[in-house]
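quick one
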Amino acid sequence: LLPPLKVAVTGAAGQIGYALVMRIASGEMLGKDQLVELSLIETEAGMSPLRGVMMELEDGAFPLLSKVTATTDLQEGFGDASFAMLVGATPRGKGMERSDLLSANAKIFADQGKALNETAAVNAKVLVVGNPANTNALVASENAPDMWPEQFIAMTRLDQSRAKALVAEKAGVPVKDVDRVIIWGNHSATQYPDLSHARIGGKWAKSILKDDKWIKEDFIPRVQKRGAEIINAKGSSSAASAASAAIDAIRDLHQGSDEEWLSNAIVSDGSYGVTKGIWYSVPTVCNGDSHYRRVQRLPIDEFSAKMMTRTEMELIEERDSVRHLLPGHEAKPVSW
Ligand code: NAI
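structure w/ NAI:
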């Protein structure tokens, strides 16, 4: 067995956290030969339920779980962590504007970025799940000046999985036969689920589906609003599927994704004309060296370009509304 890797999880007593920690402990994420140490981070109020989660982890008698700790202290919780899964976030309260939600969470993620910068393992990988995930990743990264922005990923894997499942259902094939589905942009209702390059059984999906109307009027809005559809049916937001997507995202980063294109929101380097420095979901591949690389030079048609710009604009607005929390922003000349 390989010596333990420390995985820090914030919001570990929440809905997603509860489902997530069990699966990390079972070895599904880092592999069946990898010992895992879990560092669970919660708020003061979350500490009591977290004790219950810890008891259940103990009762799971997971052979690969070498240690579990719980703390409200970020430095302690992130200390030497190889992976940080940032799930805990302030939920949108009654009467709260979107900008209030952005600011409340930006403060949390600024503190977490600082603590990661000071204490996490040098090559730590950070997956941001808590919403607004893309902008939270930007804030955390900007507050971690000694870390590469590429070490921060905001999760859009759940959106991609939702999109793949819908295509599989429509085509009447198993989900494993569908690949190269892309989520562009923000993890929000402006995201663009794109089937332009998707394949079903290795063939161009659009030529099999032969239904552009379904793609535009059914598929795209349904993926964009899938979160709300689940809340309406279940009475609470998606949790097990979100945990599953987080497991998939880190597993593929750690162990490689073969040739499959995985959607991840990573820092924009200007590819596809997207504004540099925002966390924008793109298709990526990982060859098992713990880096997601964006799939480059895909042709983009007019419809896609319009959809991609729309979600980009939302991310720019989000960035601008938390700008006051980004270090050193006042120092930059406005004319840049
Ligand atoms: P939840 O409310 O059940 O759990 C959140 C937990 O985080 C609570 O236990 C709370 O005490 C804790 N928490 C809050 N602030 C914290 C902080 N500063 N430090 C540490 N812990 C903190 O929420 P749930 O359902 O687990 O969702 C968590 C987040 O994930 C939400 O922001 C949700 O919108 C987001 N989400 C993201 C998805 C994605 O695809 N990126 C999909 C589904 C949810």
